[in-house]
Specification:
Layout: H1 10-25, H2 35-41, E1 67-71, E2 80-82, E3 85-87, H3 89-98, E4 101-105, H4 111-123, E5 132-136, H5 140-147, H6 159-164, E6 181-193, H7 195-198, E7 217-220, H8 225-233, H9 243-256, E8 260-264, H10 269-275, E9 280-284, H11 285-292, E10 300-302, E11 309-316, H12 324-333, H13 337-347, H14 356-366, H15 369-380, H16 388-393, H17 402-417
Parallel strand pairs: 1-4, 1-5, 7-8, 7-9
Antiparallel strand pairs: 2-3, 5-11, 6-9, 6-10, 6-11
Helix pairs in contact: 1-11, 8-9, 9-17, 13-14, 14-15
Length: 418
């Protein structure tokens, strides 16, 4: 393991989970930003976006620079302490193997804020300062693709990805054929509960309507996750949903509201569950894993029988990047099972490389004491390594056009804000 210790301090837990969680609703500001405001914040006006086609033979002209400028989120890379200094072992190994030095910075705190900073350069066709960025689906990555601000990938240079990526992470609806993106890490949006308080298992979205739980349920107060999970609970595939489906989901959300204690922000489920203020909450899988390892082992995450939502943080190369060949070399590198295992061991979110589990099992077999116990917990956790059935049943978020997003917000925002 890295230098992280068990159990986690609650304050550290919140610091670890908040940066990741804020990504899910960052573009819409937890449901309070309209589509037009979000677009304006990133320097996009109106609904027409002019794409500049990628030059023919682009990749054939690229050479290795020996440098990679990599922008990522906090606590999203394996770390260790060497001489009192934080280092990134897997990045060091990448440099040793490839000769590419990585300038790694944890500069992304929210999707929209980061994209707002680099958008002027992207619009001008200039170097945005980063060769590789990690951006979330459910709005932000789709917008970059729509604007033509990402470099098309050369899949002949992505042999590790082709060989080792799990089926759930190939050909996503927001980027068919992985034309522009590869998954970095993923998570599930489902339900979490305290069985000591509910006195029974929670297995279905319909359990939320049990009168015994009135005033003991919290849901995310945003207009992305809540509507999406509601549609899944109704048997609607969000990816294929129509405006009529959205209105049906809105009616269902209104029906559920009297059962709720409150709406919480997308970083709040760990706190309300650990305190007992809520018995059941909408939750992110990785956050409940962290909660279980911070002194609240009784909290359970569940993929409802109707399914859960699958979100992904994606690696992408911005247009105008100075070192694209170095970037795509690293993108493929992390799809080596042994590298994916190092990342999964530290990050504890869903890896896009299923065979990373075998690597960790082999390491567990050689470990002892606390390290062996921690590895066993990680390997056996469905929050880090969900079953094929759970991944297959998980649904992706709806890919909205600019016009559809405006309609979506008009339907769902009043429910959240009332």
């Amino acid at each position: 393991m890295s230098d992280r210790q068990q159990p986690f301090d609650p304050a550290l837990l919140r610091g670890m989970t908040m940066p990741r969680i804020s990504r899910r609703s960052a573009l819409r500001g937890a449901g309070l930003l309209s589509a037009s405001a979000a677009l304006a914040a990133c320097g996009v006006s109106g609904t027409s976006e002019d794409k500049q086609p990628q030059a023919s033979g682009f990749w054939a002209t690229q050479t290795k620079a020996g440098l990679l400028d990599f922008a990522n989120w906090p606590l999203y890379m394996d770390t260790a302490k060497v001489g009192g200094k934080t280092v990134y072992p897997s990045l060091q190994e990448f440099t040793k193997e490839s000769g590419i030095k990585v300038n790694y910075k944890e500069v992304i705190q929210e999707n929209d804020a980061f994209l707002g900073r680099i958008n002027p350069s992207l619009k001008a066709g200039q170097d945005p300062g980063w060769d590789l960025i990690v951006i979330t689906n459910g709005g932000p990555i789709e917008k970059l693709i729509r604007q033509g601000f990402l470099t098309e990938l050369d899949h002949s240079k992505l042999q590790n990805f082709e060989k080792n990526a799990g089926a759930a992470f190939k050909n996503p609806s927001y980027d068919p054929g992985n034309k522009y993106t590869l998954a970095w890490q993923s998570g599930l949006t489902g339900l979490a509960y305290n069985p000591k308080l509910t006195k029974r298992e929670i297995t279905s979205f319909q359990d939320l309507y049990d009168p015994a739980f009135k005033g003991k349920i919290t849901m995310f107060g945003d207009d992305t996750d809540f509507p999406t999970l509601t549609m899944i609970g109704m048997g609607i595939d969000p990816e294929k949903s129509t405006e009529d489906d959205w209105r049906r989901a809105a009616a269902e959300m209104k029906k559920l509201k009297p059962q709720l204690r409150e709406f919480i922000d997308n970083a709040g489920e760990a706190e309300v569950l650990a305190s007992g203020n809520a018995w059941i909450s909408m939750a992110y899988s990785g956050d409940i894993y962290q909660l279980n390892n911070s002194g609240s082992p009784d909290i359970k995450f569940v993929v409802p029988k109707e399914g859960a939502a699958l979100w992904t943080d994606n690696m992408a190369i911005p247009k105008g990047a100075k070192h694209p060949l170095d970037a795509i070399t690293y993108m493929d590198y992390v799809y080596k099972p042994e590298v994916a295992a190092k990342l999964a061991e530290y990050i504890a979110y869903i890896t896009p490389v299923p065979s990373a589990k075998e690597q960790l099992q082999a390491k567990e077999g050689q470990a002892s004491g606390e390290e062996k116990k921690t590895l066993a917990s990680l390997i056996s956790s469905p929050l880090v390594f969900p079953s094929d059935a759970e991944l297959t049943s998980a649904k992706r978020y709806r890919v909205l056009t600019v016009q559809e997003e405006q309609v979506w917000d008009r339907i769902f925002q009043p429910i959240i804000q009332s």
